[in-house]
Amino acid sequence: xxxxxxxxxxxxxxxxxxxxxxxxxxxxxxxxxxxxxxxxxxxxxxxxxxxxxxxxxxxxxxxxxxxxxxxxxxxxxxxxxxxxxxxxxxxxxxxxxxxxxxxxxxxxxxxxxxxxxxxxxxxxxxxxxxxxxxxxxxxxxxxxxxxxxxxxxxxxxxxxxxxxxxxxxxxxxxxxxxxxxxxxxxxxxxxxxxxxxxx
Length: 199
Hints:
By secondary structure, this protein is of the alpha/beta class. Helices cover 34% and strands 34% of the residues. The chain contains 3 helices and 8 strands, in the order H-E-E-E-E-H-E-E-E-E-H. Helix 2 packs across helix 3 (170-197). The protein starts with a helix and ends with a helix.
């Protein structure tokens, strides 16, 4: 009886030690980036002093959290407790795109939502992020629905889709998602240039 109790105690201690070891793994933090693509831009230059408004940017609830997300199936998702975003995901996307669009469009002012009521805008880009996660098939996906407005007038809008192969580790996943964000920035910049050329 005493021997059996000792075995149970040893197993319990081993289990607790294993949980502690798992819990002690350091957290890793990541940020999305986007290529400015300045050397690849073509099209008419925007008028000096053009102001672009960026936002509002909306995230689905499953992405409004610090953990990186993997879709295990159509119905099951895994939150990576050890690999997290270094800042709020919507803030990371907004800051990265505002910096990248300013370079791509050659403008000095890309203001982020929410701006003062008296803020003058020449164009406004708003979008909903629909998906941003790793799939079970080993691809990182980004999909978004964007709209370009001038005042109350809708100038353009469409759904953006991107899928990039990525190994099953956080560094590769974030790099692939960043590549998709670069392609998204290029599409948004192209839409603004096309609208400017048409007016």
